[in-house]
Amino acid sequence: MPSHIMRRLSASTILLGLATPAFAQTSAADDGATSDTIVITGSRIARPDLQQASPIAIVSAQQLKLSGKVNVESIINDLPQLIPSTTAASNNPGGGVSTADLRGLGANRTLVLVDGRRYVSYDSNQIVDLNTVPAGLIDHVEVVSGGRSAVYGSDAIAGVINFVTKRDFSGVEANANYRINQAGDGGTFNTNLLMGGNFADGRGNATFYIDYTKRDAVQQSARSYTKQAYTDDGDGGLAAGGSGSIPGTRFALSGTQYKFNQDGSYSAYDAATDAYNYAPDNYLQVPQKRILLSAQTHYDVNDHLTVYAEGQFINNRVKNRLASTPFTGSVSLDVDSSFLSPESQALLSAADTDGDGYATAAIYRRLNEVGARISNVDNTAYRTLIGAKGQIAGDWNYDGYYSYSRTKQVETQTGNVSRSRVEQALKTTYDSDGNLVCSDTSNGCVPLNIFGEGNISSEAAAFISIPVKNVSTVTEQVASFAVTNGNLFDLGAGPAGIAFGAEYRSEHGSYDPDYALSSGDVVGFNAGEGLSGGYNVKELLAEIDVPLLADLPLVHKLDFNGAYRFSHYSTAAKNVGTFSAGLIYAPIKDVTFRGQYSRAVRSPTVADLYSGQSQDFPTANDPCSTEDATTNASLAASCVATGVPSSALGTDINGGSSQIDSITGGNPNLREEKSDTWTAGVVLQPSFLPRFSLTVDYYHIKIDNYISTPGTANIIKACYGDQSNGWTPYDSSYCSLLPRNENSYAIEGAENLLSNTGGLKTEGVDFEMNYSLPLNFGVFGAKTGKLSFRVAGTRLIRYDLNPVAAIPELNQSCAGRFGVYCGDPYSKLRLNNRVTWSSGPITLGLTHRYLSSVRDDDDTTTYSVEKIKAYNLFDLGLQVQATETFGWSLGMNNMFNKKPPIMGDNQQQSNTYPSTYDVYGRAFFVNASVKF
After folding, report:
1. Contact (CB, 8 A) for 497 and 484
2. Are 489 and 497 in contact (CB under 8 A)?
3. What is d(CA 645, CA 731) in angstroms, rounded to the nearest whole number?
4. Cα separation, 60 vs 82, whole angstroms
5. C-alpha to C-alpha distance for 902 and 709, rounded to whole angstroms
6. What is this structure's pTM?
7. Judging by DSSP bridges, how do beta strands 886-893 and 871-880 pair with one another?
8. For residue 748, what are the β-bridge partners?
9. pLDDT at 590 over 60
10. CA pair distance 359, 333, nearest whole angstrom
11. What is the C-alpha to C-alpha distance for residues 895 and 922, in angstroms, rounded to an integer?
12. Given strand 56-59, what is the order of strands in its sheet?
């Protein structure tokens, strides 16, 4: 281990060891615990996980410690049922949040709960930022896959992730964690304190928790494989690439591309050699500071009344960093500006067709003189909940609560410029003394010299710079009341349970962008309009669980469960019904079959409905810049018809950039999504093989009215066709959504708005095997030990997305693929395997994470990297419970320093897919825990 890392980890361990040991009345869940020891708390009728009718995965408290992961996102994204979504490695796109994406259906289709209740959303998309979930307070995590809207309401199309926190804690527990990369960067420190105690002779309990996290930034310049932006070289390899917006200014006149040199002269622009390397300035790991406070209490007044309350306060500060602003667009340039060489003056004069002294040119300027683009996000959230529960009479019980949550996000941006001021500063003339000045001298205008790298003066940079402040808020109110009876009747196979109740939920969100952003005057971070809106939903719900038969020949158990929820939305969705039904059948004790059918919904979020239009730069390719545009008559005709002259066909009209300027936004006429989910599985717990269990579950999900943008790449395909159909347009009406710049002919402002698209279908198989082997030897005084094995995985059979309802030919089959259309890699096989050895105070765990190979999803383009090979990562963790009051753990992630796959034109960011593949390299962690 490098000495600088050893010194940091040793210092952390010494500091952690200063606390005085004492005893707290809690215990961690046993890693080898069988499923009947953990009960799903999200359902009102709780049952052990292996006896549920739908698949469930559980992460125990010990697994959390052995993982060495500080933030919840890292813990959850290792589960094979999840496709990594936004993480600490997400800088552009990013936003400083971390989300969970079950089945790869989207983070907005995965409902995140804390103790079975809705938690704090981070914005009007109504998605929980996993940064706000207190990792140190988690007892275990339950992942319930399959449509669960009948039980939990909207958004649970893919399933539910429920974080179960520690309850009835008595004592004091302090934890500290530190993680650092082998490269000596990216240090992440977390410390938390949990205090609790009983009162009123044990009838009440109060718990308080405080948590602080600090994560250091890592820039792309810190890794050899991310410090240079790569592009395809056309011969199957990778070459230095970047953006067509360059520090010296690329400009286009009548489709011909030039660049300015530092002395004001010009030369031909070559995308292969002149593209700007934007990579070093970008973050590879987004820095973060977070403080989290949580408190909960309950008091048993009597058997009929227990009052409870809880509250959370979270302040989360993150920063995103991008390369300096690329200014693009058509502008007027002074043809006799003293900033220009005589040759450049002559070139522009020839383009001055009306003789007014100004030429119109499309420019692409990287404004390095202004500085990097920095987004500082200060997210403050709080949540309060009060409730009461108790016995009504006999086996009838009630539980009702009200919760209110509010998140306010304040974002300040630097590095932006004002478009109107850039245009004002470029339009120059001479005063009476022969000095070059702005034609319009208002606002203290200073002439802007974009004609060569480094030529913009500090005064001009200050004039065009514009600070930006955006404020967004989202509030949620939930009122819920339910009556339950776990012993309603008995058909001879066990007591039947029932639950029924009502819920009310109100959602409201607003986004107040800076005037410069909303007016479209800002250039740098994406411009966007504001939003303000909300909706409410009133619901009635019921669940039933009935054991039908038991202890008969070939019927050891036969149980039925069902749920129904009626919802009335204040939006266009109006009245919606969701339901589910499931069976559990065990012919013998050792074998259990289970199946579930669910109808689920997802109502449009506040952002879906009311978002204004905003700018975006998704990855897409312009077919008019390809060689096919010069050889295929149909494509050539389509390109000419949409504004590309014949002379520009096949040229690099987008300047080497693989991003297309696009516009996205909400739609108040959206209808709810509807999904049908089938699951069928088997659970094996053979009596002849003690301590062994195997679950295998098939799932099939079909979503109609899928809410999504069609995608700029799909709009382009609809307009121009693709190679597979001979470049015959699928629907030429979509060409109207692809306006082009009249000078460079590049697509600018592609209209990519939300709609109810053609739908999605996916199917696969989840499996998990657990086996533990007792050992007749031990260490540190223990005479025995245990060796545990777990193999957990998902086999993806199908993932088909139809992005445009009217054009079924655009259906994308994403199983085993990645790229422009599918996005993150959808490996057909994802594994998370673990071997754990424990004896006495020692627990040693080795984890193996596996992703099968994937290939690019664009069959019309041959990229340098068409296939990403299978990917393996290994983590090692050691936990030592030195005394009843003091324990520590240490280990490493990515033991063999596995590098991420590197690619060019079909990358997401950082030359790879950084949320899926490890971009940091080997990392070390240490943790210590003291209990009083």
Report:
1. yes
2. no
3. 21
4. 17
5. 28
6. 0.85
7. antiparallel
8. 661
9. yes
10. 5
11. 6
12. 56-59, 138-145, 159-165, 110-114, 117-118
